[in-house]
């Protein structure tokens, strides 16, 4: 059985570090052939298991080829159906039209690349799309030509929630959402969102949480008189790190006798701006130190929980899937403060930290940090955090089950009824938010 895993860049940098925990479970199957097909391939790739191949057939087109697919997209029914949806939903704007054209051209180009790959290496039994984006749409189009038998896709956060996109527009989603053999959502909340927002057929959606390897050792708490707070995220508007800064100021001001340290792990376009904000707002607090590590490799983030005491992880994002960063902290026995957005409630509760309201202000975040750090029962929170990961987010169990599900889909008979992509009527039926 031939499995093609379509990624944005993995095994190349940047991002998609969580596939590193999953890929070994694909390599463990002797009866399947696995090829990674990244859309971007720059620099030196990360190591992959010996039984996993890497193909560059989808790694971009330059110059005349790119222009050609833009012209093809202009004549495509896919693009004109997108314009119909944008007009109907009152999202018609020069930028959304440009994105509709760009995403249509990328889907058509990537479909052609998949066809060429299949012609050279044999038909793909299952195209597994790590993101529910243009590559997933391309795989559906390639299936219609016979280059691919089955198409499955994960869906996370940026490829799910419309609020995270400019003008609240998720290109091509409504046209293709009914065409997948299976969509693997991370949580029940994500499944409900797929059905409610895009009209995804419920029978095609499966719940398959990500997972993390259980930490062999647990983080240790700070000694009396000290507190270490960590946050792990890209520096983006959606992460609301300005509220994190304000909450830390409130907390440090309340507890002048406690020596506090805040470590933020993650880069991103707003890194310098966030650092400047921290320097401005946290100045004058002689009991609070902070450091920004920038982007770290996946393994280096895990090591952070063991190298020094860590008392809590704080997440302030306004939109998430089910964050692996939270799983990794809890696996090491670190309590978590995070808002009730996306699938976070499947991870965080009062048993292992504090689940904030979806839109917490700085005072609510500071109060929650105060409870985790200084209320009775801190050791119990740490033990419960680890137990929650063991129960629901153990990589060994979750990834074995996921791989087995995808292989079973590849072994099943074709279902031509499910493969009929819904055109314009599907768009009209699923425009709600």
From TrEMBL:
Q: Where does the secretion signal sit in this chain?
A: none
Q: Which residues form the Glycosyltransferase subfamily 4-like N-terminal domain?
A: 101-214
Record flagged with keyword Glycosyltransferase: yes
Pfam families according to UniProt: Glyco_trans_1_4 (PF13692), Glyco_transf_4 (PF13439)
**Could you tell me which residues belong to the region Disordered?**
414-433
Keyword Transferase (UniProt)? yes
Arranged from A to Z, the UniProt key words for this protein are: Glycosyltransferase, Transferase
GO MF entry, a single one: glycosyltransferase activity
User: What is this enzyme's EC?
Assistant: 2.4.-.-
Classification via PANTHER family: GLYCOSYLTRANSFERASE
* This protein's name: Colanic acid/amylovoran biosynthesis glycosyltransferase
Q: Which organism is it from?
A: Rhodanobacter soli
């Amino acid at each position: 059985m031939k499995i093609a895993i379509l990624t944005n860049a993995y095994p190349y940098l940047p991002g998609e570090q969580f596939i590193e925990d999953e890929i070994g479970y694909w390599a463990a199957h002797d009866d399947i052939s696995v090829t990674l097909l990244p859309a971007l391939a720059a620099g030196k790739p990360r190591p992959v298991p010996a039984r996993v191949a890497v193909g560059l057939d989808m790694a971009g087109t330059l110059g005349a080829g790119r222009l050609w697919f833009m012209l093809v997209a202009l004549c495509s029914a896919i693009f004109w159906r997108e314009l119909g949806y944008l007009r109907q939903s009152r999202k018609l704007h020069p930028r959304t039209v440009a994105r509709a054209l760009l995403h249509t051209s990328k889907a058509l180009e990537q479909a052609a690349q998949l066809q060429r790959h299949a012609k050279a290496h044999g038909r793909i039994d299952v195209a597994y799309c790590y993101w529910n984006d243009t590559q997933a749409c391309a795989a559906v189009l390639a299936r219609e030509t016979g280059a691919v038998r089955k198409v499955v896709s994960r869906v996370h956060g940026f490829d799910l929630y419309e609020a995270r996109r400019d003008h609240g527009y998720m290109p091509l989603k409504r046209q293709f959402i009914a065409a997948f053999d299976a969509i693997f959502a991370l949580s029940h909340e994500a499944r409900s969102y797929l059905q409610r927002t895009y009209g995804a057929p419920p029978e095609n959606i499966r719940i398959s949480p990500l997972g993390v390897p259980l930490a062999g050792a647990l983080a240790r708490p700070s000694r009396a008189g000290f507190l270490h707070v960590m946050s792990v995220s890209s520096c983006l508007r959606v992460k609301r790190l300005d509220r994190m800064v304000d909450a830390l100021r409130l907390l440090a001001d309340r507890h002048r006798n406690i020596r506090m340290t805040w470590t933020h792990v993650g880069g991103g376009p707003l890194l310098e701006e966030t650092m400047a904000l921290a320097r401005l707002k946290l100045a004058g607090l002689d009991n609070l130190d902070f450091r920004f590590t920038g982007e770290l490799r996946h393994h280096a983030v895990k090591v952070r929980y063991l190298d020094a005491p860590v008392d809590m992880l704080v997440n302030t994002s306004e939109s998430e899937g089910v964050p692996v960063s939270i799983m990794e902290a809890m696996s090491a026995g670190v309590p978590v403060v995070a808002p009730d957005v996306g699938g976070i409630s499947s991870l965080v509760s009062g048993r292992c930290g504090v689940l904030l309201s979806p839109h917490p202000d700085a005072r609510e975040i500071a109060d929650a940090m105060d409870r985790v750090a200084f209320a009775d029962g801190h050791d119990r929170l740490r033990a419960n955090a680890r137990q929650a990961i063991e129960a629901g987010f153990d990589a060994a169990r979750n990834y074995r089950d996921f791989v087995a599900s995808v292989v079973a889909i590849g072994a099943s008979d074709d279902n031509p009824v499910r493969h009929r992509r819904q055109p314009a009527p599907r768009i009209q039926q699923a425009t709600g938010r």
